[in-house]
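## Example record

The block below lists the input lines for one assembly entry, exactly as stored, with component labels intact.
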Amino acid sequence: MASRRKSSRKVGLLLVGAGMRGLSLIPFLGRMPDVRIVGVADPIQERCQEFLEAAKQYSAEPIAVAGDFRELLVREDVDAVLATGPWNSHVPVCLAAMRAGKYAATEVGCTNSLEECWRLVNTSEETGMPCMMLENCCYGRKEMMVLNLVKKGMFGELIHAKCGYRHRLCQFLTGQNPHFRLDHNIHRNADLYLTHGVGPVMQWLGINRGNRFLTIRSTASKARGMEAYINTHDVTDKSLKGRRFAMGDVISSTLTCANGETVDIYHCVSLPGPYTRFGRLDGTLGCYSEEKGGVWLEGISEADKYDSLEAMYPRYEHPLWRKFLRSKINVEAFGHGGMDYLVLRAFIEAVQKREQPPIDTYDTATLLALSVLSEESVSLGGQPVTIPDFTCGKWLERKG
Amino acid sequence: MASRRKSSRKVGLLLVGAGMRGLSLIPFLGRMPDVRIVGVADPIQERCQEFLEAAKQYSAEPIAVAGDFRELLVREDVDAVLATGPWNSHVPVCLAAMRAGKYAATEVGCTNSLEECWRLVNTSEETGMPCMMLENCCYGRKEMMVLNLVKKGMFGELIHAKCGYRHRLCQFLTGQNPHFRLDHNIHRNADLYLTHGVGPVMQWLGINRGNRFLTIRSTASKARGMEAYINTHDVTDKSLKGRRFAMGDVISSTLTCANGETVDIYHCVSLPGPYTRFGRLDGTLGCYSEEKGGVWLEGISEADKYDSLEAMYPRYEHPLWRKFLRSKINVEAFGHGGMDYLVLRAFIEAVQKREQPPIDTYDTATLLALSVLSEESVSLGGQPVTIPDFTCGKWLERKG
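Predicted structure tokens for the full assembly:
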């Protein structure tokens, strides 16, 4: 079922969604000599034109344009499809891509039903094509060093992790072009943006590879932040004045795992203050704290004092980052400190080798399902709800 | 019912429990010129003798000794009773004290049933005598500055708080004299030591004074830390080798409040790493982070950068601490950076003025109940459980 590709040819990509994220990938993809953007699709033609203009800086090769991505999907030179549009487009785009025999990758987002997640899994298994979430934080430098320490057993037995997303998006959501995320925040009370935090944690805990998530329970605080912002700032859409928001300013969730670990997740996109992802990992031999910027390891660290990440990198850098930093690639030119480059390369290389990507469809489905299940738990007053085993038992045999 | 006392006389104290905590109060109480330790009671006579020896350094006044505190309880020169013994003794001691017309204060701890909490409330209301938990963290310098900022409205509307207790007690619990807390950790799976974190948060959120706690849900990780420690260290009680511990290494809890705020609580006493209480407060105008050691306030702080606590103290120090630091009292000579002095003074002054203490019986009952309710939630798989209104509606009228 998988379409064959000539291995010496550049990997041909179709981007579905020419908004902010799609545009932001141009400098990254444009710098990869083995990648070519074959086509871009977006119902808003102005966006496609803007995309073409921006892409010219990097390549003179023509890029096909369409309003409906299906017009470009079956092209022989399309090897993979990137879903870079609004959240609600991600699953339909990936499903169509896999059915057309293409590799599928989705930008981070959320879903609305568990059925969407099962559709991804079922379609992937039927077609043999994978669907990878481009969760860039899995490739962050500190997150990967922590992963390296985990693999070396230096934290001992893992017990607990914390993660989250605190990033005030009030201005972003109510700016000149109201963002699609606004509707989700107005009508849905849940943690809809947890993958930046949970993605790396899934890798540390070996989820879907000898371990799995069992339950999630989510509690929402009251919602005041967006309304407070709209009442005190100039927003483009005046109808937002007095609008009520369903999404609590802070969503606190806890996951349980088959192997007994727990994970605390925090979500806040509507209150002012510094950005953080609250990363933390606790094991029987040490711990990591993103807030404190360091690692504490028994037998290595001084009592009550974290060793800074900077002090740890020389010895414990993840091999992927060590190679990345030694390469001639200008790390800083890539998004979010370089992690965007690495996550895209991981996908591209999977396409080239015709292999499963490191974040596979089971992982993607799991990450997407958590948003829906968070919503269910909140609606039940914080009751724990169960997380499906999207691997249907394969997690027991698969190794990390 | 309240026993009269001559206001010029020193406040006479009976300490029930001459173990580690009781002993540690001697230097603090000994330095207070308006306080006198009248009696000490402990079933273990050696402890009482050690207490008397230590107390001689501060005062030549005689201290009565008994195995059973009831022998000393009705003395006319006992104005107040401090429950400083094992956790399970706190409530019985305070009940007896109140019934004898004495002010009662309890060291931090936990309870085993909601009934114990209601007994405290009922007895206090019947006798008119209060029971104050000596939660020293309520008087911590940074916690009080945050309280000062809250009272000034500088965080805006409060939305969420975090708190916790991460303090590896493996050596402490398995040391020469097995500690009474060990049995609780062996047999109970719950957050039994949350008052250091929740105490200050209760004051920030005005709990029992226009607000109240509604529900708590707790999730426990697996328990590995104590066993790992015992297997790799020399412990006095060899029967602990191979002993299973019920208490998960990490207990994650979330509280909901009547006014819509939520509070995340973390508990870990069995894994290695630096001490922390994870304090955090989020509001519509700013936030506080203990981990980052600072405060961020809209209109005052630079984007994405906390102002350090040190930078904030000159302008925003709580008046109580400002007065404390300007006094001739050697702050550092008192426990835990000075907070122990302030919490004891708050109690002593309530006794002197025959007033309700700032942490009153309703607050004490609430703090104690959370441990029991955490245990119930864990046993129900993390289901939220309800928290009683110990004020029976008075919280609606009382102001902070």
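The mean pLDDT of chain A is 95. Chain A touches chain B through 49 residues (CB under 8 Å).
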